[in-house]
Amino acid sequence: MTVSPRISAAPASTGAKRRFSVGTFFIYLFIGAFALMCLYPFALVIAGSFTTKAYSTLHGFTLWPGVDGLTLAAYKSLFVNMTFIVNGYKVTLFTTIFGTLLSLFTNSMMGFVLSRKQLKGRRVINFYVLFTMLFSGGMVPWYIICIRYLGWMVDTIWALIIPMLAGPWNIFLFRNYFNSVPDALYESARIDGAGDFRIYASIYIRVSTPVLATVTLFTALGFWNDWWLGLMLIKDHTELYPLQMLLRNIISNLQFLQTMESSAQVQMMMASIPSDSVRMALVIVTTGPILLLYPFVQRYFVKGIMVGAVKG
Prior knowledge:
With 312 residues, the chain is mainly α. The chain has 2 domains: 23-71, no CATH class; 83-243 and 280-306, MetI-like (MetI-like fold). It is built from 15 helices and no strands. Helix 7 (168-180) packs antiparallel against helix 10 and helix 12 packs antiparallel against helix 14.
């Protein structure tokens, strides 16, 4: 009996360096140039918020207005009443954090229920949620419901949270993601005696990091940028105005002063206030903090939307 020698192919070298081709170079060059183009407007807004009115009138807004063109007048006029701005930050931070947590709980619970195939009337409830996403009752019916039937929350902090708790789009994101979770996990937990809420909290939420991060970003942006609820549902308690509502009032006051420039006193006042720079300073104040959230969730962003899209 003869034993044939073992013939094995030499494994490919895993440590071989990748060749940097000309095509790869141009791809990186294009992506880098595109990234700079995206950053340019934001950098221009930052520089414009520190630009004097005289310099912007003569030369426009540039990335470096020079030492003579730099000023803090926009931020000084913006923070002339620091108490209101700080209070607006407190209200907005509370509604963003607490409202986002409540919204995640509400939408994920609804998505989990709709992902259960044994739910009676599942198709009807799915259609109801979809219908509310495609068609709105309008502003007037919404306002009547909030004032007449939910009047207890008017002029309270809940007026800035409750109307935004449930979102059909977020519910479907959770439902599609939960549909992609193997049914074996649910069945094995049921065999072990776990209830639906225990399965939801201990299993489905723990494996839902991508969709949780995605919905958190959507929801937090919605709460942070909201000023409409403050305008409609906060009547007498101005201390409950969110940050965006306060800044909207500042812009409205600036626009009103610009229409009154016929007065010599108003002209002198407006000459010392760089109105365009104030608007750019508002952009920095309002968008700066929320931009810090994006780097922590951006790696889950695409995955959270796409996972479950095929099985939806």
